[in-house]
Design a protein that fits this description.
This protein is of the alpha+beta class and 141 residues long. The protein is built from two helices and eight strands, in the order E-H-E-E-E-E-H-E-E-E.
Length: 141
């Protein structure tokens, strides 16, 4: 069954925040993807160097994930909605089942598809206003 990972969202301060977290937890970033690396014509030039996805192991098998949310990428970020529950699926089939089930009656933000960082990935807000993500790590599978 899927496990849950905290995913933090920032308004232009993700890199600074994650450098701070790394100074406390130690370790190295597993992934750092900037918006300029994303295949999207919708990314504003001002967001090119902002973080689209970052991953930091913080111990006990837990990853802390995060990104910036430039204007126009989903709903505005405010205290209280600056995090998501990220489900780590064991297969594409499980990811699809979780995505379809939990997004029913909600709002799909990013349809389930292959991400630039190599995951089968999707984002949504459920019918109760909770932000979710699902990811199946396809590399080495």
């Amino acid at each position: 069954m899927a496990s849950i990972t905290p995913y933090l969202t920032f308004t232009d301060t993700c890199e600074a925040a994650f450098n701070f977290y790394r100074s406390v937890f130690g370790g190295e970033f597993v992934q750092v993807v900037r918006f300029k690396d994303m295949p999207s014509e919708h990314t504003p030039a001002s967001a090119a160097n902002l973080i689209a996805h970052i991953s930091l192991p913080i111990g006990g098998g837990t990853l802390l994930l995060g990104s910036d949310a430039p204007e126009g990428f989903g709903p505005p970020i405010n205290a209280g909605n600056n995090f998501s529950l990220s489900l780590n699926a064991q297969s594409k089939e499980e990811a699809t089942m979780l995505f379809n089930g939990l997004s029913a009656g909600g709002n799909v933000i990013m349809p389930l598809d292959i991400s630039p960082w190599g995951s089968f990935f999707g984002m949504w807000q459920d019918q109760f206003g909770i932000n979710w993500m699902v990811s199946y790590e396809m590399e080495n599978k």
